[in-house]
Amino acid sequence: MKVLITGSEGQLGKACVDLFRKSHEVIPADIADADLTLKNDIEKIFKSSHPDWVLHCAAWTDVDKAESSRVEAMAANALATELLVDACKKIGAGMTMISTDYVFQGDSSTGYAEDDQRDPVNWYGETKLKAEQAVQGYGQIVRTSWLFGHGANNFILTMRRMMTENKTIKVVADQTGSPTYTVDLAEVLLFLVNNGTPGIYHGTNSGLCSWFEFAQEIASISGYSSETVVPCSSQEYPTPAKRPACSVLKSSYLELLDCPQRPSWQDAVKRYIDSINQE
Ligand SMILES: NC(=O)c1ccc[n+]([C@@H]2O[C@H](COP(=O)([O-])OP(=O)(O)OC[C@H]3O[C@@H](n4cnc5c(N)ncnc54)[C@H](OP(=O)(O)O)[C@@H]3O)[C@@H](O)[C@H]2O)c1
Predict the structure, then answer these.
(1) pLDDT for 79
(2) Pairing of β 229-232 and β 180-181
(3) 100 in contact with ligand 1, CB cutoff 6 A
(4) I want to staple 182 with a disulfide (CB 3.0 to 4.6 A). Which of 15, 53, 250, 270 is the partner?
């Protein structure tokens, strides 16, 4: 298939371009190729590439700045997705969009199933909910959380930089989620695009931890003492956008399609750190 991958310069987009190239014809597109908030840009790229499938990884991902740039964030996430869905419908192309656990309030004690009622925790979550609503009933929605991968600044790189500075690092211990490696999520997305079944899916690495436990694992794999990391509460680390206490996404629909189990988050962190150590 010809697969148009939006956000191809982003951390997930890069991993998807690398993987999908092995079995599909890939058309990578980032904002320099097409600003997805502009109908003309979408029409142009559809005309020149005529995709069979659109894997929509592009998004406004600055969660805190979304609170103060509400119109721009809504356009980049909701309007862009609406325009892409319209363009896909016109030519009968399939569509997969990436969403987030932030479409939920984050106060569950057990985590969120695919069909749980949505109630966004912050403005970024509101924009992604609108995007989901545009895709729902037509394409695939794949929610993920706590992404890390090549080519972007991320939690692991930030922690490692602070660890080299011999600082004691306070890390939030009252938020739980599943760190997810873009390389592993790209495998899930390839499986789903090949399968084609529309619906809502939850794609993360397996297992759960707090940001504090995530940081401890990074320290241990990177050869730093676990004492470099100390726990703190969310109240000690205020941010413009509210963060969910529970980012846990329970998956059952991937299993119904026989999607291979995702590796544990610890295994994913180890593979990622090994690969950056070799760069
Ligand atoms: N990062 C996470 O922890 C996380 C968690 C849950 C879900 N997600 C979702 O996963 C997906 C991938 O995230 P990511 O971390 O890979 O994002 P990312 O690294 O920020 O990449 C997003 C890409 O989209 C581009 N983009 C933004 N606005 C655009 C527009 N109007 N037209 C065309 N391209 C545009 C960005 O360009 P610029 O850099 O120039 O803006 C960037 O290259 C997103 O849908 C995100 O919402 C991410």
Answers:
(1) 98
(2) unpaired
(3) yes
(4) 15
Of 218, 244, 212, the closest CA to residue 106 belongs to: 244
β-strand 53-56 against 25-29: which pairing, if any?
Answer: unpaired
Please check whether residue 52 is in contact with residue 4, taking contact to mean a CB–CB distance below 8 angstroms: no
How far is the centre of ligand 1, averaged over its atoms, from the C-alpha of 243 (Å)?
18
Position in ligand 1 atom list of the atom nearest CA 98: 45
Active site members: 124
Whole-structure pTM value = 0.97
Query: Hey, where are the domains in the chain?
Result: 2-277
Question: What is the structure's pLDDT at 237?
Answer: 85
259 CB near ligand 1 (under 6 Å) = no
- Quote the ligand 1 centre to 225 CA distance (angstroms): 33
Confidence class for position 121, pLDDT limits 50, 70, 90: very high
CA-closest candidate to residue 171, choices 209, 207, 213: 213
Does the C-beta of 129 come closer than 6 Å to ligand 1?
A: no
Atom of ligand 1 nearest to the CA of 124: 47
Q: Is the pLDDT of residue 158 over 80?
A: yes
Residue 133: the pLDDT is 98
The answer to whether the CB of 94 falls within 8 A of the CB of 143 is: no
What is the chain's mean pLDDT, rounded?
96
As its CATH architecture, domain 2-277 has: 3-Layer(aba) Sandwich (3.40)
Amino acid at residue number 71:
V
Q: In which band, very low, low, confident or very high, does the pLDDT at 241 lie, cut at 50, 70 and 90?
A: very high
Could you report the per-residue pLDDT of 189-215, keeping only the tens digit for each? Answer: 999 999 999 999 999 999 999 999 999
Kindly report the number of other CB atoms within 10 A of residue 239's CB atom.
12
